[in-house]
Specification:
alpha+beta, three-stranded mixed sheet, elongated
């Protein structure tokens, strides 16, 4: 379950930010999670709750925002929606659509005290 290591990394990032910015408590953590990013949201929520115990993020709400998948079709020369990795272009059938969004995992914001 790689969600556990992701949650541990989030806590580490939060603690580093706390040291540099001087906050003592985290109320909310915003995460942008790609729709095709291979992260199970329920597992990440569970792991975050477990690894934040005893830290400045204990009790913080983990707010997951799903980023839809999109890719660039070189033939159509435009962005197209994707429902899975290696999708064909829905307009021209091109097989070399390059994913541009939807596989990210990004700490987007912290609400702190």
């Amino acid at each position: 379950m790689h969600e556990l290591s992701i949650a541990e990394s989030l806590v580490s990032l939060i603690e580093d930010e706390s040291c540099s910015k001087g906050f003592s408590r985290v109320k909310r953590v915003g995460i942008k999670l790609g729709a095709l990013g291979h992260v199970e949201p329920a597992a990440l929520l569970f792991c975050f709750d477990v690894v934040t115990r005893g830290t400045i993020a204990e009790g913080a709400h983990l707010d997951l925002v799903t980023v839809p998948a999109a890719g660039w079709c070189p033939r159509c020369r435009r962005s197209v929606a994707m429902s899975q990795r290696y999708d064909l272009c829905p307009d021209c059938g091109q097989s070399h659509v390059q994913m541009t969004e939807g596989d990210e995992l990004r700490l987007s914001e912290l609400e702190v005290e």
